[in-house]
């Protein structure tokens, strides 16, 4: 059984109707009205968030912000403990990022505040950046990671590591470009 799904199932059992209503209200900008109305339980809502890429074992910042907003520190503590323990499968096979994710991980760990300049160099629009920033308001690194992943989705097969390296060099981030090349 997936430990992350077990955790979400546990959360679902511990959330009251009022908690669920509050979370649904907070998700209005992320989930369409019809889908929100169809969510009859927290389990349904978590499934929708996972489908839309807002929630996964490695992406819990949105869930953290929801639990903080509804003042469920007990569940927030469980979530943080789960993350600190490595999500139940620290060195599980298949947990390594795939070849497409490795440059994103390396870049996100080394770029910092210059991420917007880099994204503009990659022809990522300000509107796209604003949307990502609104979805991850308190986490700069997550904003950058999501921007890179969104750029990768938009470009599809045309998203090349060489384009990332060129953009890094154009932004005078040569050290990061060298690390990516390795």
UniProtKB/TrEMBL annotation:
GO terms for biological process: extrinsic apoptotic signaling pathway; positive regulation of innate immune response; regulation of apoptotic process. CDD domains: DED_FADD. SMART domains: DEATH, DED. One of its GO terms (molecular function) is caspase binding. One of its GO terms (cellular component) is CD95 death-inducing signaling complex. It comes from the Eukaryota. InterPro entries: DEATH-like_dom_sf, Death_dom, DED_dom, FADD. Residues 3-81 form the DED domain. Residues 100-182 form the Death domain. This is FADD protein. It comes from Piaya cayana (Common squirrel cuckoo).
């Amino acid at each position: 059984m997936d430990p992350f799904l077990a955790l979400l199932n546990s959360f679902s059992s511990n959330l009251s109707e009022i908690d669920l209503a509050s979370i649904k209200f907070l998700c209005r900008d992320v989930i369409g009205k019809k889908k929100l109305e169809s969510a009859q339980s927290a389990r349904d809502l978590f499934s929708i968030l996972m489908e839309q890429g807002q929630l996964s074992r490695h992406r819990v910042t949105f869930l953290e912000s929801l639990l903080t907003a509804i003042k469920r520190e007990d569940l927030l503590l469980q979530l943080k403990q789960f993350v600190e323990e490595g999500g139940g499968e620290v060195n599980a096979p298949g947990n390594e990022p795939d070849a497409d994710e490795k440059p994103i991980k390396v870049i996100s760990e080394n770029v910092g505040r210059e991420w917007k300049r880099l994204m503009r160099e990659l022809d990522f629009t300000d509107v796209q950046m604003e949307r990502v920033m609104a979805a991850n308001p308190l986490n700069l690194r997550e904003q950058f990671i999501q921007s890179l992943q969104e750029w990768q989705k938009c470009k599809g097969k045309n998203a090349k590591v060489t384009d990332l390296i060129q953009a890094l060099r154009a932004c005078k981030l040569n050290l990061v470009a060298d690390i990516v090349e390795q």
